[in-house]
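User: I'm writing a short methods note and want a consistent example. For Peroxide stress protein YaaA, I'll paste the sequence; you return only the structure tokens, no commentary, since I'll be parsing the reply automatically.
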Amino acid sequence: MLVLLPPSETKAPGGDGDPLDLAALSWPELTDVRAGLVEALVELAGDLPAARAALGLSPTQDDEVARNAELLGAPTMPALARYTGVLYDALDVRSLTRAQRARADRRLAVGSALFGVVRATDRIPAYRLSAGSALPGRPTLRALWRPTLGPLLAAVDELVVDLRSSAYAALAPVPGAVTLDVLCERPDGTRVVVSHSNKAHKGRVARLLATTTGEPGDVVRLRALLRRAGFHVEHPGGTALTLVVPADWATR
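Assistant:
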């Protein structure tokens, strides 16, 4: 089972690993695109107004541009430690046992606008690039990634659970992947999407899938696994699942 997580805008600073080695990252088929994007970000960082515009940043976020300028020399850390925020707080890899962390390292991967996809253990620097960013003089990220990342993910020979946000899934859709929508159910029975709840509950689902000793091979078995763990999961059809949470869980 391969569980694809969305990245986060926020990244943990620092690190204790050697500088970025693109050749050492998982899926070396993506190296050329990765290298081109790293080069583009470093070059863009030399033009502060252009970098702000391309990356959607304000002057108060110039430290993000500075990070990009140092991409090739900055220290690295494992991807699961680099990404932060609501989903990663709920995933809480630091609390896993050694055996659970080993399973998580095998199963979890993170979609990335800069690297395409990285394994949990891949060492990366802090950076700023989002799926919707438009780099001057370059094709869209979707146009860059789809020809290489799409076939790579489509060829994964195991169940893929795609928890990426729509913007990152659009960079390279995975045919046949199980997807998960999170809906909050109000007392009157109506259902709405809540961003915070979506991220937190996907983090909890990711934690279960990363650590379970089970190995579901299809959407039906995956749903059964989630339901046994106490999740209210519906299967509207195909490979789509819907996780329904009560309104009073919206901020949990």
